[in-house]
Inverse folding.
């Protein structure tokens, strides 16, 4: 039986690589649903190539154009809008929902998919950052597996196979350090959008690439790891490993450390999440130790890259802190990409927003949605002040 996949965010970096994996494993997987925000050109082509039963464009003003383009394919239903996107995941034909949308927008569809009992292959880390307690509680109640797609979390997940949870002492997330690892703090004031988008090891979507440059991506991953693996913040550490060959490590109570390694290629963690608990044969490039004479490690510089420290603080504070941080970060990154604010203003805007949104100790879904909205407003106002 082929596994039927709903791929949310199929036109993005993870979405396209997922389709590449599916095309190579046609006898194992089938695409049921494809979704995008606005990129109807690519969505149309993907629909023609993969013949899903439904395609959804989140921006509903593009519905008629998409419908026209797929008019020769009556078996493909065309839908539009965020509500359709959030509802489609409940469809009985779907086995697994791969969440490759970017940002807070991934929260509602992920919650719906969990409520409908679907297995989740989670790339959209912001979902767990925003509402990790809610998501993990619901997943436990519904006995739903959340399988990580993020390479670091996939590495940890792979290291944990066959191990007892009680024997885990800590996990160590590796970080490439991003394009500005060697820059001085003073130099970070003047770095450009294009320099920030030039990641040394990974080709990814714009938002996560900027998050990697600020180390916010590692901060988001620390929080994601807390919820995925049910850990305390002091059990999650970060080490900079510029070659991105070791994808992360687990240290056990007997002092043993397990690492998962390989070339930086997201297709492997995507495939592992889709095929788990099996491993499938691939033609991906094999790692050759003789070509890598040294793998190096260093401590992250949290004075230079404040965002990682902010994420740890939000994790310690709990409540709606990480939700507020995430919203402010999304707004700040968007404005940095529009070249309205400087690189060092990103953490400044996040800290300002955290100070101005009321703390909620035990938020429900409504509180998260409200905190997200308020944080976005405050972050946007701060940016207007900075631009004056
Ligand atoms: P991209 O920006 O490349 O793609 C995002 C996808 O989501 C696109 O299909 C986009 O559609 C769609 N989308 C964007 N905004 C919305 C919205 N408001 N509503 C509905 N759909 C939307 O992102 P990535 O693929 O890089 O990242 C996706 C997620 O995976 C992120 O959470 C990221 O942190 C995580 N991740 C990514 C990795 C990577 O290597 N890229 C690695 C690990 C995790 P459209 O094309 O039409 O804009």
């Amino acid at each position: 039986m082929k596994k039927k996949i709903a791929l949310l965010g199929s036109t993005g970096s993870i979405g396209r690589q997922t389709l590449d994996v599916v095309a190579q494993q046609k006898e194992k997987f089938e695409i049921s649903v494809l979704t995008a925000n606005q990129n109807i050109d690519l969505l149309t082509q993907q629909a023609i190539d993969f013949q899903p039963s439904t395609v959804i464009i989140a921006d509903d003003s593009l519905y008629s154009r998409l419908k026209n383009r797929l008019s020769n394919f009556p078996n493909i239903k065309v839908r539009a809008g965020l509500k359709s996107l959030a509802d489609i995941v409940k469809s009985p034909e779907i086995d697994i929902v791969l969440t490759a949308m970017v940002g807070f927008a991934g929260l509602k569809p992920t919650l719906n998919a969990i409520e409908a009992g679907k297995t989740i292959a989670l790339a959209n880390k912001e979902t767990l950052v925003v509402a990790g307690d809610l998501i993990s509680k619901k997943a436990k109640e519904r006995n739903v597996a959340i399988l990580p797609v993020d390479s670091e979390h996939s590495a940890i997940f792979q290291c944990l196979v066959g191990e007892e949870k009680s024997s885990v002492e800590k996990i160590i997330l590796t970080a490439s350090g991003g394009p500005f690892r060697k820059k001085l703090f003073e130099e970070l004031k003047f770095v450009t959008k294009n320099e920030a988008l030039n990641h040394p090891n990974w080709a990814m979507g714009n938002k996560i690439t900027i998050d990697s440059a600020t180390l916010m991506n590692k901060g988001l991953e620390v929080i994601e790891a807390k919820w995925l693996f049910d850990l305390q913040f002091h059990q999650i550490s970060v080490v900079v490993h510029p070659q991105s060959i070791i994808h992360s490590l687990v240290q056990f109570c007997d002092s043993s450390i397990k690492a998962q390694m390989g070339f930086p290629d997201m297709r492997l963690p995507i495939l592992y999440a889709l095929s788990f608990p099996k491993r499938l044969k691939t033609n991906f490039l094999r790692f050759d130790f003789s070509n890598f004479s040294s793998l190096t490690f260093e401590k992250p510089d949290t004075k230079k890259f404040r965002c990682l420290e902010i994420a740890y603080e939000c994790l310690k504070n709990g409540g709606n802190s990480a939700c507020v941080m995430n919203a402010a970060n999304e707004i700040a990154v968007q404005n940095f990409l529009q070249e309205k604010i400087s690189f060092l203003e990103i953490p400044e805007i996040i800290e300002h927003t955290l100070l101005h949104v009321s703390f909620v100790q035990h938020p429900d879904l409504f509180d998260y949605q409200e905190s997200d909205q308020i944080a976005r407003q405050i972050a946007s106002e701060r940016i207007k002040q900075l631009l004056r």
User: Anything to note?
Assistant: The pocket of NDP is lined by residues 9-15, 36-39, 58, 100-102, 105, 123-126, 150, 202, 204-208, 266 (CB under 6 Å).
